[in-house]
Specification:
The protein has about 500 residues and is an alpha/beta fold. It is built from 18 helices and 14 strands. The protein folds into two domains: about 250 residues, Periplasmic binding protein-like II (D-Maltodextrin-Binding Protein, domain 2); about 180 residues, 3-Layer(aba) Sandwich (D-Maltodextrin-Binding Protein, domain 2), CATH 3.40.190. Helix 2 runs antiparallel to helix 14.
């Protein structure tokens, strides 16, 4: 089935060139059709066409089956959009793309997509998970799909409340709308209870990047940032030097304060440094997650992190600024910080910022590090199926269709319109986003970290000014080992 694509950028995006929709993805085995690559597009074509990739049969009919989806509500204090539960059109391009995606899936499969929206933020996790537990234990099958907060929803898998989606009918994980790295890194012995990808946008929205203030950079004579990134020289040492140059006691009280003065770097977290510097805490051996601590590198990272936040002039101290994300956001939005590290989704809060800003990847440890790397926040959405699901084939087909339609309709609306038209202010930033998204690391520790005790490892060290990782590791490792063994053993004891 041929469709017209609105821009060459979108054509490149769908062909996989920009990586955004399918980190770790690949070509689908046995797919009905293949995508058209940019090289196949005639030079005289002004509106490139592409051929839809799909693994679903052309005609599927589930007789009007209702697919009830427990969705994370659109929380006012976060940068995460409501990924499925859009109940009506509003005129907003992205909102309406999600709404129309749901209607397209309904028509294609002859199902009814029924979003049930609920506050699924961290503070309401018990109530959110209890809804699923009640449905499973009663066997009423109230929810067919659950869209859950990644840092807490895995507890339901350990409790036996979720279905193993490995080998689910109609779900082809090699298709580019699925994020294989997230799915595989969250698995145990080949059992995957969670899906992520273009079925929802939180995994993209929650990717860590660095924003920078162009006016401040220009005033300081820092006019080579994009070139520095392209040359591979965007490192922690370069950022530290820029922060010192940017520091300015604007109110003249002799104290550099992120509430009143100009800073070099502001953020309310620091766990992203581990991924930025190429560190994972776990690895899979024979499908089983194991701890994999690089003690030398982690010791160096912990020591440097504390020095960065508490000894580098211009860097806001993490123990004070991390009370709320609004401190760092306000400082940058008011034009009082050169750099601001946060999620890609925070960009929507900067739309009315007076100063121009650009976006950059997370910096490297040093120039010897081959590539830039980043991670997603632990608050991304994971899609799962409760064990009481009564129509698994229809539900699985709906998940595949929602992912596919997300890839072809919602993703372009998000990227081409919401990001590049509304928010990004220069062409170079689009290139920087590509670099930032090229290597998005995910880890079993990110998904199961809340149960394992390592969810905020580097944050905890930095907030308490603990620069001694070896000592911290020695005091925690027995508990971490016990938690990991318990979680894995419990999952292995469940029916496959």
């Amino acid at each position: 089935m041929k469709k017209t694509i609105p821009s060459l950028l979108t054509a490149l995006l769908l062909a996989g060139t920009l990586i955004f929709s399918a980190c770790g993805g690949g070509d689908a085995d046995g797919a009905a059709e293949t995508t058209t690559t940019p090289a196949d597009i005639p030079e005289e074509t002004t509106e490139p066409t592409e051929t839809r990739l799909t693994s679903l049969p052309e005609t599927m009919d589930f007789g009007g089956a209702e697919i009830s989806i427990l969705c994370r509500e659109n929380e006012a204090n976060t940068s995460y959009i409501n990924e499925i539960g859009v109940l009506e059109e509003s005129g907003d391009v992205l909102n309406d793309a999600i709404y129309q995606r749901n209607r397209s899936v309904e028509k294609r499969l002859n199902v009814v997509v029924n979003p049930i929206n609920m506050d699924g933020y961290w503070s309401n996790q018990t109530a959110f998970m209890d809804k699923v537990r009640e449905s499973v234990t009663s066997g009423d099958g109230t929810y067919d799909i659950v869209v859950g907060y990644a840092a807490y929803i895995p507890a339901l898998a350990v409790e036996g409340m979720l279905l193993n989606l490995t080998g689910a009918p109609h779900i082809e994980l090699d298709n580019p709308w699925w994020n294989k790295d997230i799915i595989e890194s969250s698995s145990v012995a080949g059992r995957s209870y969670f899906l992520a990808g273009d079925i929802g946008l939180s995994y993209m929205n929650s990717t860590f990047i660095i924003y920078y203030n162009k006016q401040i950079a220009e005033s300081l004579g820092i006019d080579d940032i994009y070139d520095t990134v392209k040359d591979g020289a965007w490192t922690r040492e370069r950022v530290s030097a820029d922060c010192r140059a940017a520091a300015d006691d604007m109110n003249g009280d002799g104290i550099l304060n992120f509430n009143d003065d100009r800073m070099g770097y502001v953020t309310n977290h620091t766990n992203e440094f581990m991924s930025a510097f190429g560190i994972r805490l776990t690895k899979h051996e024979g499908g089983i997650p194991k701890w994999d601590f690089n003690m030398d590198k982690l010791s160096d990272i912990a020591a440097w992190t504390c020095a960065f936040y508490y000894e580098t002039e211009g860097v806001a101290p993490l123990d004070k600024i991390s009370v709320t994300h609004e401190h760092a956001l306000r400082c940058f939005a008011e034009g009082r910080s050169l750099y601001y590290c946060s999620h890609l989704g925070r960009m929507l809060y900067l739309r009315d910022m007076t100063d121009d800003f650009g976006v950059l990847p997370l910096f490297k440890w040093d120039e010897a590090q081959e590539e830039y790397s980043t991670r997603t926040a632990d608050s991304i959405s994971l899609f799962c199926v409760p064990a009481a699901c009564k129509n698994f084939e229809a539900v699985a087909a709906a998940m595949e269709a929602l992912g596919e339609e997300g890839y072809y309709s919602v993703l372009p609306a998000y990227y081409d319109v919401s990001l590049l038209v509304k928010y990004v202010r220069d062409d170079e930033s689009a290139e920087m986003l590509k670099l930032a998204r090229k290597n998005v690391m995910f880890d079993f520790d990110i998904t199961f970290g809340n149960m394992l005790g390592t969810l905020n490892l580097l944050n905890d060290l930095a907030k308490t000014k603990n620069a001694n990782f070896a000592s911290y590791h020695a005091s925690k490792i027995n508990g971490w080992e016990a938690n990991l063994s318990k979680s894995v053993d419990t999952i292995l004891a469940l029916d496959a």
